[in-house]
Design goal:
alpha/beta, seven-stranded mixed sheet, 7 strands
Length: about 260
């Protein structure tokens, strides 16, 4: 009987969460609920990721939100994800996914640098990352950079290195024309709580002690699945489950990097 009550409660929470996301996507109320004070409106934005599919697995709520607010979106992927020898395939898959996410293909750049190869235990040089990111910022007139936080959602070392590369860029940049925001990593329990995590994320952001945090509901959850499905070489059963049950499919919380 107790298990039945728990299951019913979870189902009700899940349905209520999905209803809230649907309600926000069909109305203008998200602007009021998640008011960012215009911080993210009509900016030249660069999303910096480590591997093809990072954008679809982790950042779709952010990309959907920014796209609908008139931002000019760019993606810089610092490797082809060639750990299994499929780098060329994965590169093309990222271009296809970017179309689903309303990011112009010509504004998606994928690197294949000999010192930035995909893999656990393969550390990336922060100075090199900073140099590459800075070149992209200058060339594309970027004023807002978005990337992983220090943990990198999954704890992947390449994700963490990308964060450090962006932080190095901020340290080495004398002017203050570029700001950077990081995707806040959550506990494993919250990570796999799906849409239910929107309540905890909103509550956590409201009372966050280490700076301002903005949370973005995914206005088009189906777009996340459509984008990830373009990564056919990665679209195996456990990633299908991840995208369905990951909180990052339904909400992103961004914190400014100081």
């Amino acid at each position: 009987m107790e298990w039945l009550v728990i299951i019913v409660t979870l189902v009700v929470l899940w349905m209520a969460s999905l209803f809230k996301i649907l309600h926000e996507s069909l109305s203008a109320s998200q602007v009021e609920v998640l008011n960012d004070g215009g911080v993210f409106s009509k900016r030249n934005v660069l999303l910096v990721i480590a591997h093809p599919d990072d954008e679809s697995m982790f950042f779709t709520p952010t990309l959907n939100y920014l796209s609908s607010r008139g931002c000019n979106l760019h993606i810089l992927c610092l490797s082809t994800g060639n750990a299994d020898g499929m780098g060329n395939v994965r590169k093309e898959e990222l271009y296809l996914a970017s179309i689903m996410l309303k990011v112009p293909q010509k504004q998606v750049k994928v690197l294949d640098h000999p010192d930035l190869q995909d893999g656990f235990g393969k550390s990336w040089n922060y100075k090199l990352l900073s140099k590459i990111i800075k070149e992209e910022v200058v060339n594309c007139t970027i004023d807002l950079v978005i990337t992983f936080d220090n943990y990198g959602v999954s704890g992947h070392c390449n994700h963490q290195d990308v964060h450090q590369g962006v932080r190095k860029l901020l340290q080495d940049t004398s002017h203050k024309e570029v700001e950077a925001w990081e995707l806040v990593s959550t506990s494993i329990l919250r990570k796999y709580s799906g849409s239910v995590d929107i309540w905890l994320s909103l509550l956590s952001a409201k009372f966050h002690l280490s700076g301002v945090v903005h949370c973005f509901l995914n206005e088009h959850p189906g777009r996340s699945l459509a984008a990830m499905a373009q990564h056919k070489s990665q679209w195996v059963w456990f990633r299908k489950l991840f995208v369905s049950f990951s909180s990052y499919t339904y909400i992103n919380c961004l914190r400014k990097i100081n």
